[in-house]
Amino acid sequence: MTQWPGWRSLLFVPADNERLLEKAGRRGADACILDLEDAVAPERRPAARAALPTAIARLAADGVAVLVRVNAGTREQVHDLEAAVGAPLAGIVLPKVEHAHELVVTDGILTELETERGLEPGGVPVIGMIESARGLLAAGGLAAATPRLAALALGPEDLALDLGGTPGAALLTEPARRVAWAARAAGIEAIGFPGSIANYTDTGRLSAELETAQGLGFSGALCIHPAQIGPVHAAFAVSEADLDWARRVVDAAPADGAVFSVDGRMVDRPVLLRARALLARGRRQRGR
C-alpha cells in the first residue's frame, strides 16, 4: 500500500500555460497537478509533454509536490507517462477510471518506466478519479486494484454530467459517501467534496461542502483556483484541540491494552487508533 503524504490541497495547473506554471509554486497548495487532460487541447499536448520535465523540476525545486494528470486510454497515456516519469514526480492522477484493469495497466507501464530510469519500482503513487456512474459502482474493486493506488478522488463535474444532474450536495453527497467507503475499506484515502469544483467565488458554499466531505472521511480536495486552497486547508486541518486530546489519549493508554477513560469518556482500541492517526496527520501537516 502506498503511503499518503498528507496532502490536503491539490491544485490543477494546465501543463501548457507558462503564466500559471510560473506562479503555481507560490500559491500555497500542498501539491500541484500538471494537467495534460481536460486543460490542454489535443493539438497542444505534444508541446506540453516536451516541456513537462522542466516544469516538474522547477516546481519541485520550489518545494511543491508535483503530480501529473494523464489522459485516459492507453495510447495517449503512454506518451504522457513517458514524459512525466522522473525523480521529482510525486504522483500520477488517472482520470475517468471505471475498470480495475485500467489501474493494473497503468501500474505496469509505470513499473517499466521506473525500472528503465533507475527509480524504485512502485515508487510513483496513483490517484484514481471516479467520474462516472460506472466508476462509482466499481469503486470498491478499483480501490483494491493495485498497491500503487494511494487515493480515490471524486470528480464532481464529469460525474454530475454522467448522472444527469447539477454538481452539488443534493446529487453528490451519496456518491461521495460511496467513494469514501470504498477508499477506507482498501486502506487508502478519499479526496474531493460533494460540490462543483468550478465554484471558487462562493466560499460559504464551498466551506459547507468541504465540511460535509471531512465528515464523510475525506482527507483533502482537488482545487482549480488558488482561492479554494485556504478553505480546503481549514476544512482538513487537524486542530490544536484535536491534537491535545489525541496526545492525552495516547499518553494515558495502559500498556496492557485495557479500556481506560479520558475526559470522562471511555477509550477503547478504535478510539486509541483514531488518536494515533490524528497525531500522524498533524505531524505530516506541520512538516510542510
UniProtKB/TrEMBL annotation:
Protein EC: 4.1.3.6
Enzyme class: lyase
Keyword entries, A-Z: Lyase, Magnesium, Metal-binding
Known cofactor(s): Mg(2+)
Keyword Metal-binding among UniProt keywords: yes
Gene3D superfamilies: Phosphoenolpyruvate-binding domains
Domain HpcH/HpaI aldolase/citrate lyase as annotated: residue spans: 8-226
MF terms in GO: citrate (pro-3S)-lyase activity; magnesium ion binding
TM annotation in the entry: none
Example GO BP: oxaloacetate metabolic process
Name of this protein: Citrate lyase subunit beta
Source species: wastewater metagenome
Lineage: unclassified sequences, metagenomes, ecological metagenomes
